[in-house]
């Protein structure tokens, strides 16, 4: 069990640093874009694309991170009424559905779209669109890994103990 928690902590650390770095990059590039547009009257098309793709990467990596923490938005009107084993079973079913959705749409679909767009190149950066779309299957794989770790925690009763400590 400790090995799985170390894996989770490692993934959490990498994702939190990646999201922080992408956010810092966006602030720097956004500031640069404002300065060159308004003070030098020379808008930068490279910065526009870089901001767009950085935001996409940050949003998808952050969504995987939030799924791992189980802090994502949810409608708890059914789960909140349940306690004990029925609630645990429902939460496991939800994790399995999330895993199926992330695996089929994000990993499988993302891999296909990544392959299809590898020959298209972005207008300003000159990067293949397939490289940009790499984040879709990557975040899908991370969500699947987190779902497996969440199921293990739920079965072991670890998640319940952690929530009681948080509250």
Automatic annotation (TrEMBL):
<keyword id="KW-0997">Cell inner membrane</keyword>
<dbReference type="InterPro" id="IPR007387">
    <property type="entry name" value="TRAP_DctQ"/>
</dbReference>
<dbReference type="GO" id="GO:0015740">
    <property type="term" value="P:C4-dicarboxylate transport"/>
</dbReference>
<feature type="transmembrane region" description="Helical">
    <location>
        <begin position="50"/>
        <end position="68"/>
    </location>
</feature>
<feature type="transmembrane region" description="Helical">
    <location>
        <begin position="12"/>
        <end position="35"/>
    </location>
</feature>
<keyword id="KW-1133">Transmembrane helix</keyword>
<dbReference type="GO" id="GO:0022857">
    <property type="term" value="F:transmembrane transporter activity"/>
</dbReference>
<dbReference type="Pfam" id="PF04290">
    <property type="entry name" value="DctQ"/>
</dbReference>
<feature type="transmembrane region" description="Helical">
    <location>
        <begin position="89"/>
        <end position="111"/>
    </location>
</feature>
<keyword id="KW-1003">Cell membrane</keyword>
<keyword id="KW-0813">Transport</keyword>
<keyword id="KW-0472">Membrane</keyword>
<keyword id="KW-0812">Transmembrane</keyword>
<comment type="similarity">
    <text>Belongs to the TRAP transporter small permease family.</text>
</comment>
<protein>
    <submittedName>
        <fullName>TRAP transporter small permease</fullName>
    </submittedName>
</protein>
<dbReference type="GO" id="GO:0005886">
    <property type="term" value="C:plasma membrane"/>
</dbReference>
<feature type="transmembrane region" description="Helical">
    <location>
        <begin position="131"/>
        <end position="156"/>
    </location>
</feature>
<dbReference type="InterPro" id="IPR055348">
    <property type="entry name" value="DctQ"/>
</dbReference>
<feature type="domain" description="Tripartite ATP-independent periplasmic transporters DctQ component">
    <location>
        <begin position="26"/>
        <end position="156"/>
    </location>
</feature>
């Amino acid at each position: 069990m400790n090995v799985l928690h170390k894996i989770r902590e490692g993934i959490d650390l990498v994702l939190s640093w990646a999201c922080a770095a992408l956010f810092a990059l966006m602030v720097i590039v956004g500031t640069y874009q404002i300065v060159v547009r308004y003070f030098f009257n020379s808008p930068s098309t490279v910065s526009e694309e870089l901001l767009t793709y950085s935001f996409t990467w940050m949003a998808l990596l952050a969504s995987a991170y939030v799924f791992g923490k189980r802090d994502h938005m949810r409608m708890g009107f059914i789960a909140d009424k349940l306690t004990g084993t029925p609630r645990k079973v429902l939460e496991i079913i939800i994790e399995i559905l999330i895993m199926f959705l992330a695996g089929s749409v994000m990993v499988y679909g993302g891999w296909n779209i990544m392959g299809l767009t590898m020959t298209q190149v972005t207008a300003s950066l000159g990067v293949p669109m397939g490289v940009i779309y790499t984040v879709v299957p990557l975040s899908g794989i991370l969500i699947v890994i987190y779902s497996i770790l969440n199921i293990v925690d739920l079965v072991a009763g670890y998640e319940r103990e952690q929530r009681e400590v948080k509250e």
